[in-house]
Amino acid sequence: MAIEATTIEDPDAIRTSATHQGGTIHPVWVRVTHWVNVLAMLMMIGSGWQIYDASPLFPFTFPSAITLGEWLAGALLWHFAAMWLLVVNGLVYVGLGLWTGRFRRKLLPLRPGEVIADARAALSGHLSHADLSVYNAVQKLLYLGVIACAIVIVLSGLSIWKPIQLRELSLLFGGYDAARYVHFFAMAAIVGFIAIHVLMAFLVPKSLRAMIIGR
Ligand code: HEM
């Protein structure tokens, strides 16, 4: 099976496998930044929905029961406060991911053929979760994709926040109005990711344990 071949033959995977790191699957900086990110994302999404409701882009609004901030001004305060947590924490995660070589080892290479094979195996219930220290190709795609969405949501958010001062950035997204749509669709992609991701975490509880205690 594709995933097992990857696990056994990839020398990088063997070097980073749990047994070679004294049993630690996720180093402490990954776990801390992951859970801080969850908190920041929940605050950003909840307050973002409240801000959206004040001036909807589409013919629907989010029920106030699932929004944060109670009204526009309150939601803006939440959004700008959580923004710092999200950005600083994200910079630490991406910085350490690049500097330690974790991204290269764990998330690359990403081969379309392996994504298709692993997606098929996952849908037919044949994907191995035996070695949690090696991500399958679908996980790699989803994690790289959500990291890219997080970068896009921050940059499009900055260009909505300061469209005059950050004019070039705003123009990169096609101007203020287009940046609002980009910001919305990046949110929708992240919410879609979270739904699948949380479901998977509870279907494979030992992966959740590893993201909490490291092994
Ligand atoms: C309550 C919500 C969440 C739960 C329960 C959760 C759980 C987990 C678990 C168990 C893993 C390890 C996966 C594995 O070893 O197979 C993981 C990894 C990861 N999660 Fe989450 N997660 C949550 C929210 C999020 C959010 C909101 C994001 C980003 C928007 C996110 C992004 C990631 C990424 C990028 C990884 C890979 C980290 C790395 O190895 O560097 N997660 N998550």
In short:
It contains 10 helices and no strands. The protein has 215 residues and is mostly helical. The longest helix is centred in the middle third of the chain and has 28 residues, at 72-99.
Which descriptors would you attach to this protein?
215 residues; disordered N terminus; single chain; mainly alpha; binds protoporphyrin IX containing FE
Explain the overall architecture.
With 215 residues, this protein is mostly helical. It has helices spanning 2-9, 11-15, 28-54, 72-99, 102-107, 112-123, 137-161, 167-172, 176-203, 205-213. The two termini are 25 Å apart. 22% of the residues are buried.
Shape: globular
Radius of gyration: 19 Å
Helix/sheet category = mainly alpha
Strand percentage: under 5%
Helix content: over 70%
Count of separate DSSP helical elements: 10
Q: What's the helix-strand series? A: HHHHHHHHHH
**What is the number of E strands?**
0
Distance between the termini: 25 Å
Give the distinct bound molecules: protoporphyrin IX containing FE
Report the average pLDDT across residues.
Answer: 91
Topology:
Blueprint: H1 2-9, H2 11-15, H3 28-54, H4 72-99, H5 102-107, H6 112-123, H7 137-161, H8 167-172, H9 176-203, H10 205-213
Bound molecules: protoporphyrin IX containing FE.
